[in-house]
């Protein structure tokens, strides 16, 4: 249908809106990562803005992410829902949730670097070190979520 046809059917404003919606293109992700919690199955993470905040939000939405943190945490942070508060992320029992994903939560996701160092994932690290289509295994070490690169040639 042409723009004019839609304007005749729906009216001027709605016809133009409908035409634009029908012609809209999906925004392609800038970076695609494949992340595994258990080493067997992978979750695709599509980053549109390539920011560490967006990565953290997508990781927190993954099924099993909080359970992985709880199982990997050995310092007793599970009492009274404080696993959420240790990352400044609120559960339904811990308050308003107004500070979810604020600046204090930027430092719990790390990338396994050379010689086993943990590199804090920042926007700059995402743009320069993380490659599109990379495979990562997530591990919890001392309260940190560490993303370990998996070599595709190890099959």
UniProtKB/TrEMBL annotation:
UniProt-listed PANTHER family: GEMINI, ISOFORM C, TRANSCRIPTION FACTOR CP2
Database matches in Pfam families: SAM_3
The organism's taxonomic lineage, starting at the top: Eukaryota, Metazoa, Ecdysozoa, Arthropoda, Hexapoda
GO CC term, one of those recorded: nucleus
Name under which the protein is recorded: Upstream-binding protein 1
SAM domain: residues covered: 1-22
InterPro entries in the record: SAM_3, TF_CP2-like
One Gene Ontology term of the molecular function aspect: DNA-binding transcription activator activity, RNA polymerase II-specific
Domain of life: Eukaryota
Segments crossing the lipid bilayer: none
